[in-house]
Design goal:
This protein has 14 helices and 18 strands. By secondary structure, it is α/β, with parallel strands linked by helices. It is globular, with a radius of gyration of 25 Å. Bound molecules: zinc ion. The site of zinc ion has 6 residues, from helix 10.
Length: about 450
């Protein structure tokens, strides 16, 4: 009996040792492969234990040995072994400084369009987590999800020109847009903590009032400092049925010397002048919308989305569901590398709205569209957190804009063609949601 027990223990020990040895030998691998090849291979050779995350044209797959061997036989692929204790992290950032940062003790798997995927052990991960702000989100890489869709390309040849929507969009007044943008930049700064910031709010209020909109200012605090959001609205002919559509952007700016010199032409003179351009378009069309349309300029964005947070917080429980769509314009004027391209950003619950916008973009605008489902870092985020359908349109090259938050963010570097295409998309969306809401079905 005694011997048997001993023998049994030895057998158990050997089994355990073998199991440990196998566990130590079994590899875990990260493969970066084109999304097409990756999905195909998972379908064909996957064991069911692989996980993936799509970022545009790329699929990042986390797998064991067998699948890794399979995948190595196919396309040129980038393979990295996972070291003990390492996990995959995703950083989503609107801040070029963070985007270009080196994170000690980590290995970079992917870096493009404001997204970084890293392999990090526990200590390095703690450092990553400390980078989280209103502009930078840090999380474990989502499993089996599309974070960024494959790019969609539109084309001038297929753009509609004859229907009512096309005729509406064609009336966008770009010289007036450029004049508004120049006026905002000429204020020298629109920093939330100085009186020039309020001057910008008053300047825009005057212009929107002249267009016939009912305007108001919504006060709130940034720390101990008082500031105001600007709201201009036109009541819809059938608000009960069609609710409200919000066109928003932040008016404030910042730089290395924000109190005296923060021109903020791209960030976010372009989006603020864009909100004005859409207001002017609706006004000059003479059309009375079915939905109530509000044009909102936020302050305090650069300090942590204060304006949009205050706006969402002030919404009553009965008003929230009446907001059918929020269009946020933030940085719509930088495009240095052809072709023109935009990023449309939202959360996955709001996929139907983004799909409608993609369709409108194909019919009425001309650029490459990247769609992100990992919204973060601008004024659409507080709306999405309250489950209000919101979409950001932003230049897709924002993470390589050399003028970001600098005194060099001037009108001269604005790509007017990109502004026009992003405004065409938002104009089409405003038309579809507020004027001819039947188009959405
Ligand atoms: Zn901005």
């Amino acid at each position: 009996m005694k011997n048997f027990v001993r023998a049994g223990n030895i057998v158990v020990s050997i089994v355990l040792m073998l199991a440990c040895a196998t566990a130590a030998m079994a590899g875990q691998w990260i493969q970066v492969v084109t999304s097409e090849t990756g999905y195909e291979l998972i379908k064909k050779a996957g064991s069911g234990s692989e996980t993936f995350c799509q970022l545009g044209d790329v699929l990042i797959i986390n797998s064991g040995d067998v699948f890794n061997d399979q995948i190595l036989k196919t396309d040129p692929v980038n393979v990295m072994p996972v070291r003990p204790g390492e996990k995959l992290y995703l950083i989503t950032t609107k801040d070029p400084a963070v985007f270009n940062m080196v994170f000690p003790g980590t290995r970079t798997v992917y870096r493009d369009m404001g997204f970084i995927v890293l392999l990090a052990g526990e200590t390095a991960a703690m450092n990553l987590m400390s980078k989280q702000t209103d502009f930078t989100k840090v999380e474990l890489l989502p499993e089996n999800q599309v974070v960024l869709s494959r790019p969609l390309t539109t084309g001038i040849t297929r753009i509609k020109s004859e229907d009512a929507l096309a005729k509406f969009v064609d009336k966008l007044d770009m010289p007036a847009f450029m004049q508004d943008l120049t006026d905002l930049v000429n204020l020298k700064t629109r920093y939330s903590y100085v009186s020039q910031g309020q001057k910008a709010v008053d300047h825009c209020e005057e212009a929107l009032k002249e267009m016939g909109y009912t305007t108001s200012q919504q006060p709130y605090n940034i720390g101990s400092s008082r500031t105001n959001n600007l709201i201009a609205e036109i009541r819809g002919s059938d608000e009960d049925k069609f609710g409200q559509v919000l066109i928003v952007g932040h008016l404030d700016s910042t730089s290395e010397s924000p109190r005296t010199n923060a021109p903020g032409a791209d960030d976010n003179g372009s989006g603020a002048a864009g909100v004005m351009a859409l207001a002017r378009l609706l006004h000059e069309s003479g059309i009375k919308p079915a939905a109530t349309v509000k044009f909102i300029l936020f302050m305090g964005e650069e300090q942590g989305l204060y304006g949009s947070k205050a706006y969402v917080k002030a919404l009553s429980a009965t008003e929230r569901p009446t907001i059918k769509a929020v269009f946020n314009l933030d940085m719509i004027g930088f495009d240095a590398v052809a072709p023109l391209s935009v990023m449309i950003e939202t959360s996955s619950f709001n996929r139907p709205m983004v799909e409608k916008m993609q369709k409108l973009a194909l019919d009425y605008a001309d650029f490459t569209i990247h769609t992100s489902f990992n919204a973060w870092g601008s004024d659409h985020a507080p709306f999405l957190q309250a489950k209000i359908p919101a979409v950001l349109t932003i230049e897709s090259e924002f993470s390589s804009n050399p003028n970001y938050h600098k005194t060099t963010d001037l009108v001269e570097s604005i790509n007017q063609d990109l502004c026009l295409q992003i405004l065409r998309l938002n104009a089409a969306a405003m038309y579809a949601y507020a004027i001819d809401a039947g188009r959405l079905n």
